Amino acid sequence: MPKRKIRVNTATLIVIASMIGTGVFTSLGFQLMGVHSGFGILMLWLVGGVIALCGALSYGELASSMPRSGGEYHYLSKIFHPFAGFLSGWVSATVAFAAPTALAAMALGTYVNKVFPISNPVVLAIAVIVLVTFIHSFNLRQSARFQNIFTILEIALILFFIIAGFTIHTPQPISLLPQNATAASEGWHSIFSSSFAVSLIYVSYAYSGWNTATYMASDIQNPRRNVPKALFNGTIIVMVLYILLNFVFLYSAPTKEMQGQVEVGLISAIHIFGLKTGNFMGMMIALLLIASISSFVLAGPRVAQVMGEDLSQLSFLAIKNKHGVPYVAKIIQGAISLLLILTASFDKVLLYVGFTLSLSTFFTVLGLFVLRARNNGKTDGYKTFGYPVTPIIFLALSAWMLFFTMKEHPRESLLGLGTILAGSIVYFIKKPTISIHENSIVSEKY
Length: 446
Fold this sequence. Notes:
The chain is an all-alpha fold.
């Protein structure tokens, strides 16, 4: 019986669900601590959207040229060297999915705790991860159905939230553009400040997930065509929703109330709907964060699975059930998520994973130039729209963001670099010899 494949619509919904969730419902409070103007905040989300869109367009060509699951691990192994792929895969297998899963679960617990103080946010976070991991450990059809339902509900809630936000009777004085020359000068000055660059880490984390379809390309129908389409469509939809949703947050609630707070969606909902209905909306946001958790649990283990197929020492990660689900990799990813919940604070984990993921995507997009040069500028299938400007924009903005994050938050940045260093040590404990085999990039022999 042929293996069931994911259709392009489901792949798009997985991309959307991976992006929407923790970041957009939690990170605004941290952005407001560094960027104080409404114009600056909205520009943050626009610039973050441009970075994500340029990345998605660039990854589309990589996915079309190399249509196999694994994402950065697959691309960097083939373009640069198996060592580069291993490091990226190490990041993906250890924190790139486990940390966002933990953050989404922590946010869910925080939202519920604010509505029902008697609840324990840590216990709730742990319970949700265990439940979702269990649901996704059987077959792809069940996983796809679960993912589709929660993602559609999530999009519906956000659209309702946006529409309701514009009907508020006493809005905050927020505008899409500066109101006078002084405000314009201050607004544009803030955009080129170090605070803006650091805040982009929070926004980039909120947009992270635009590359999710590449991690499970082998499970998608006609990946050469459908993976680029899913990346582009999903990113465009989320970009529009994010800008509108953050405008509603600023439009409905005083910025001072949201500064440094995780549950900005709940604060905004209370101002829009009143305390009782606002608390209900807060619970709905918490419930639909499950869509984000679900997408990470669904896509993440595919990277570990591909590494297990290529590396003999990690072969246990490729163990699958009769439906092709890599359940061992899922269990390990879930365990790492639980460890992060029990040992780290929300904002530190967010900065750490945001910095680490940005490093990985930076070198992957850089690989597009290497791939083009190696193929004398020729490529089969999808070609990046706007090349070479599109990937250059991504690389320039990412480098700017990474530089100031290292400068302003060295501890979290060093932790990200330390994760990569740990992967290097693991790789060179027994340096592999390389041979090519069918349906893979490398076969590691020890």
